[in-house]
């Protein structure tokens, strides 16, 4: 597999900005190099042919954008984080009349449904509005459907057990899977119930543009395993976006391998996996 050099990265980023509304200038060079090398290899293209193709084939351009953006997620991914959300963060909102939550970089939506399930368990679902965004229109359609492969995702049930069916002190809680989704082993699918799929507002949005696409401020923003692919400057632009659109005392949740550095770290108080707006 041919390696991509720095000058090729610059040419690619510049080309994308000229021919589309996408901007990869703030993405990690290491991440872009790895993904572009794989794209060239998978499509049997040299770099110059690749540039010509993205300029003259809109469908191919959209495919490349989707290949570059990462879409790995699962139901209740990292159960300790979700237990922290369940027991430490969401109870803070019990006395609010309205709770607004934004999943930024929601991918195929499993974490959106994780949040909805917990909200329902805490009797907060009716007064909560969930908003979810991603750059990739294909994964948003998948998220809207709320349908996932069963056998490929058996760990979903283990995660569900650790967050929903196991109490804080280790006691068992009687919550049947059928309360929230249908498991059809013959058709190899897990399908979320309609009272969950009808709740979120999904919208295609590029965080690089630093715009809140919704006419609300948020109590909780979840953006996990996204900023790790951004460089330092872009990370702080996104942190500013989140800071400006959180209520005072609102919380930002990042991925377990992500940390807030730079000027905006002083604007938040870190508690476990949460960054709380001062």
Summarize the structure.
The chain contains 10 helices and 10 strands. It is of the alpha/beta class and 278 residues long. The protein has a 7-stranded mixed beta sheet. The chain has a 3-stranded antiparallel beta sheet with strand order 3-5-4.
Descriptive report:
By secondary structure, this protein is α/β, with parallel strands linked by helices. It folds into 2 domains: 6-68, no CATH class; 79-277, Rossmann fold (3-Layer(aba) Sandwich). The protein has 10 helices and 10 strands. It has helices spanning 6-19, 29-42, 47-56, 58-68, 79-89, 110-121, 137-145, 155-163, 194-197, 232-244, and strands at 99-104, 128-134, 147-149, 181-184, 189-192, 201-204, 218-223, 246-254, 268-271, 274-277. The chain starts with 5 loop residues before the first helix and ends with a strand. The mean pLDDT is 92.
């Amino acid at each position: 597999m041919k390696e991509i050099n720095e000058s090729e990265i610059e040419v690619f980023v510049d080309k994308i900005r000229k021919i589309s509304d996408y901007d990869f200038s703030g993405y990690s060079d290491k991440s872009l190099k790895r993904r572009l090398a794989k794209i060239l290899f998978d499509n049997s293209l040299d770099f110059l042919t690749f540039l010509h193709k993205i300029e003259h084939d809109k469908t191919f351009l959209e495919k490349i954008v989707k290949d570059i953006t990462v879409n790995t997620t699962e139901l209740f991914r990292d159960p300790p984080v979700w237990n922290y959300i369940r027991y430490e963060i969401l109870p803070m909102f019990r006395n609010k009349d309205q709770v607004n939550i934004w999943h930024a970089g929601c991918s195929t939506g499993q974490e959106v449904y994780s949040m909805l399930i917990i909200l329902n368990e805490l009797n907060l679902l009716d007064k909560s509005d969930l908003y979810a965004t991603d750059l990739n229109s294909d994964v948003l359609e998948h998220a809207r459907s709320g349908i996932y492969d069963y056998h490929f995702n058996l760990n979903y049930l283990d995660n569900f057990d650790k967050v929903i069916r196991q109490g804080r002190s280790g006691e068992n809680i009687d919550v049947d899977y059928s309360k929230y989704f249908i498991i059809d082993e013959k058709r190899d699918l897990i399908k979320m119930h309609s009272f969950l799929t009808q709740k979120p507002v999904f919208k295609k949005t590029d965080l690089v543009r630093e715009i809140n696409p919704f006419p609300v401020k948020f109590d909780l923003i979840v953006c996990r395993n996204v900023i790790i692919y951004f460089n330092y400057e872009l990370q702080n632009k996104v942190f500013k976006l989140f800071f400006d659109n959180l209520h005072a005392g609102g919380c930002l949740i990042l991925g377990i391998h992500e940390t807030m550095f730079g000027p905006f770290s002083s604007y938040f108080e870190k508690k476990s996996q949460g960054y709380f707006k001062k």
